[in-house]
Amino acid sequence: MSLLLSLIIPTYNESENISPLIIQLTSLLDRTLEQKYEIIIVDDDSPDLTWKIAQDLSDQYPQLKVIRRQGEKGLSTAVMKGWEKAQGEILGVIDADLQHPPESLLQLWSEIEKGADLAVASRHVEGGGVSDWSLLRRFLSRGAQTLGLIILPGVIGRVSDPMSGFFLVRRRCLANSTLNPLGYKILIEVLAKGKIGWISEVGYVFQERQEGQSKVTKQQYIDYIRHLVRLRLSLWRFERFIRFGVVGLSGVFVDMAFLYLLSDSSTLGLPLTRSKIIAAELAIINNFLWNDSWTFRDIAQTQPGKRRKIKRFIKFNLICLAGLILNVLFLNIFYNIFGLNRYVANLGAIAIVTIWNYWLNLKLSWRSTDLDSESGK
Ligand code: GDD
Ligand code: MN
């Protein structure tokens, strides 16, 4: 019998919560899905023997399976382990401490039945909220979300509660994705790596924990930032950025060579800023030709013809010219304010502007029409 739902519950020291949770969940799911579901508890060898209690429970509840991990620890890797073993078409995750109300699962399920690829329980939509959270905790939670919106706007911005640890997702949307989340935030990994079209959100109130302790430590906040940066780099398809950097480097040589040929006292000795502008424009032309035929070759090939190439060049030039203004600005700040040597100041300015140029050119000049491409995230 094929299973419809595989619900993963990561547990660590949840001995008081596990029985009441399983009783509630199985009674809800038996009514909705009959036997076509499984609940997989993934316990990291809890000292309070949560895994033992769960194993005993599985004698009573045939849909319940228990994985006891030894020597491994971590919420998101526990969930990945459960998903690996899961048989269901729909993969889900819920916390064990009843802070995620089991009854909201039915609302999530009905969103999936309507056709959603991902159904997320959210604290930040109608009907959602948190019970009595301190101002600090609200600030930290919203602060983390804002940081995520800055680093991964196209991912974090897709849902109102990207920190939610309570959701259902279609297995096929994750089929070709290698998920390797860090810390607590699985949903972010699913949004970034999965092929997720229709997203549905259900409001729920995050209850206060009655039994046991939250396992959240400072480490989770550090892991969260590391996770964001790692996703940012992976989504940037690093090899393309490397190529852009190599082309940028060739542009530096063109830039420097012409800066020397034009401004150095032993050559033409023209004024610095004028020489800089000419040198930079020649470097821009050099970089465009290499980027169009190498870095973004795959995208440029989908936009054939001279006219479109000129359009890309104009966009590239405008972006780089804006970058040039930034470049001159930083060059003068580093040279006149920080008193750096002119060539060190120039290198610093170029480094900052390279990231600016890459990001905007990926978004605008070589904007590919394919929605899934890295420029959409
Ligand atoms: N297997 C395993 N290993 N489970 C763990 C581990 C671990 O190292 N650490 C925590 N868990 C389990 C807990 O037993 C609980 O079932 C669940 O993961 C959540 O842990 P809590 O420590 O209760 O997290 P929280 O309540 O502070 O945060 C939760 O809610 C946030 C808001 O939705 C988590 O779901 C967060 O991901 C979520 O952002
Ligand atoms: Mn909790």
Automatic annotation (TrEMBL):
Its cofactor is Ca(2+); Mn(2+); Mg(2+). It is found in: Endomembrane system; Membrane. Its EC number is 2.4.1.83. Keywords: Glycosyltransferase, Magnesium, Manganese, Membrane, Metal-binding, Transferase, Transmembrane, Transmembrane helix. GO terms for molecular function: dolichyl-phosphate beta-D-mannosyltransferase activity; metal ion binding. One of its GO terms (biological process) is dolichol-linked oligosaccharide biosynthetic process. The chain crosses the membrane at residues 241-262, 316-337, 343-360. The keyword Kinase does not apply. It is a multi-pass membrane protein. GO terms for cellular component: endomembrane system; membrane. Pathway: Protein modification; protein glycosylation. Transfers mannose from GDP-mannose to dolichol monophosphate to form dolichol phosphate mannose (Dol-P-Man) which is the mannosyl donor in pathways leading to N-glycosylation, glycosyl phosphatidylinositol membrane anchoring, and O-mannosylation of proteins. Belongs to the glycosyltransferase 2 family. This is Dolichol-phosphate mannosyltransferase.
